[in-house]
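Hi P.,

Sorry for the delay on this. The queue was packed all week, but I finally got your sequence through. Input first:
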Amino acid sequence: MSAVALAVIFAIASAAAYAAGAVVQERLAAEAVRIPVLALLRRGRWWFAVGLNGAGGALHVAALAFGPLSLVQPLGVLTLVLALPMGAALAGRRVSMRHWRGAGYTVAGLVVLLLLVSPVTGAEALGGRDATTLAVTAATMVAVLMAAARLARPPVARSLLNAVAAGVAFAVASALTQTVALRTSEDGLSALVSPIALVLAAMAVGGLLLSQMAYRDSGLGAPLATVTLANPIASAVIGMILLGERFIGGTPGAVAALAAAAVASWGVVVLAQPESYPLPPLGEPDLAEEREPALV
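Then the structure:
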C-alpha cells in the first residue's frame, strides 16, 4: 500500500474518531445541562470522549507521517460530515436537508480554505519568544471569548462564542504539538516537560471543556462546524504571523481564501438554525425532561 493511501486511511479514521468524540460530548451535554461542566470530569463517558479525541489526534499525526499537510488537513472536515449522521442516529432521527446543505457549505469552504493556506515549506518549530507570545495572546483571546459568552443571552450566541474559543485553543494546541514534537526529536524527552508542553496540555483540555459548553447550549451541528472552521483559520493566522507562511497564489489566493471562509461561515449560520421536531403524543412523557442527571 502506498504512503498516500495510508495517509488517507489514517486521516479518515482520525475524522471518524473526532466525530464520535463530538457526538458523545454532545449527548453528555444534553443530559447534564443542569450541572457544572467540570462535574463531567467525574463521568466515565466524558473520559471516553477524551479518549476518542486523543485517538483522533494520534491518527492525525500518523496521517501526517505518510502524507503532506495539503492532503491530510482537508480530510479533517469529514469530522462534520460524519458527526451529523452519527448524532442523528443516536437521537433516533434523520438529518434534515437544511442541515446537510449547511454542512455542505461549511465543508466546501473549508476544503478550499485549507488548500489555499497549506504551508509550502516543511514543519517548523516555534522559537521560545514566539511560543510565549502565542500562549499569552491565545489565553487572552480565549478569556475574552468566554467572558462574552457568559454575557450573551441567546443560547446560540453563547454556543458559538464558546465554539470559537475552543477552535482557537485547539489551533494553539496543534501549533505547540508540532513544536514539542520537533524539539523532542532534537532535545529528547525533556521537551515533554517544558513550559510549552504544559501550555499545550492546558489548551487541549480547555478546548475540550469549551466545546462541551458549546454543545450544551446549541446541540451538535453549529458548534462543531464553528470549531471546525475556527481551528484552521486560527492555524493559518499562526502560520502566517509566526512561521512565515503565505496564501498560495498571492493576493488572488488571499481573496479566494476570504471567499471560501465566507461560504463556510454561511454554512455555520445555516447549521445554527434550530430544527423543529414533533412533540411526543399526549400521555407519553418527554424522556429528556423527566431525566434527572446524576452528579456522579
